[in-house]
Every structure is written in C-alpha cells, then in structure tokens.
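1st attempt posting a full record on here, be nice pls
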Amino acid sequence: MKVASLVCILLAVVFAAAENLPDKFFGTFDINRSVNFTEYWEAKGYGYTTRWRFITRAGVTKVITKTGDDTFNFDSLSTKKDLKYKDIKLGEEFIGEGWDGSNHTITFSFKDGVLYEKHVPTDMDAEQKEDEYRFHFEEDEYRFHFEEDELVQTLEYNGVIAKKYFKRI
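the predicted structure (as tokens):
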C-alpha cells in the first residue's frame, strides 16, 4: 500500500513538472531576422500592401514572464499592435484577441522542448470585418523552440514554412 502511494505521489510530481514552462523561455526577445515570412503571409492570401505595411515592417518583441508556479504571461509587442495574454496555464484554453482583432480560443502547450501557441478564431463573421489584417477563419499554431541562444518561432501554412529568430535582450 505504501509503495502504491509513493508511486502515485511520484507520478503526480512528474506530471506537475511536465506542465511548467522551462526557465529558459522566460525573458524579453527582440526580432533579429526572419526566413520565408513574406512567403508565409502570401500563402495565407494576404495582399502585397497588407504584407508590406502591416506585417513585414512591424517590429516584434516577445516578453514571456513567470507569474506563478505554473503560470506565465506571454506578450507580443509590435509597432502596430500589442497582444498580452496573462496568467496562462499550459494546456488550458482561454479567450484572447488575435492579430486580426477578433476573439480566439487560445491554448499554450509544451512538449519535447517546444512551446505551442494554438489559435482558433471564435467569431464566424470575422472574415467580413474590414481590418488592416485580412482574416481567414482557420486555426493557427505557432511553435517556439531554441536554436543556440535564439528563440525561434515557426509558422507553417500549405507547405510554406517561415521562421522568425528572436535574440534575448
């Protein structure tokens, strides 16, 4: 009986530890360079003017801050718009604003050294909105991992893979 209790406690500790974001993800990261970023947005159907004015020219800073034992803030700050998600728990859905200005169901998860940020738009009429960011009612998943000292964001759509490299500041 004591062995079974000990095993249950150990499993609970292992699962709890698996639900925390590693410390190396916390910090402030400025965009350093990108690869295939314009091609990615083109594949998603964004026109030249939108890509040039609002997407490719916008500087981005990621600020990831630990707020509790198992919570964190994830801020995407740009010259055009800021997105701030507060007190996130890995694996728990919440409603937050997307780059298009509409509400999304957002889930952050972590597996095998990769932080996943999944967005599912909740506003079925969002694609009718006139906004600087043309909107497609599709889910998106952004992946974050480290290559040497850089935080790398990977975006993929219809076989086009884009990467954004962020330097810790």
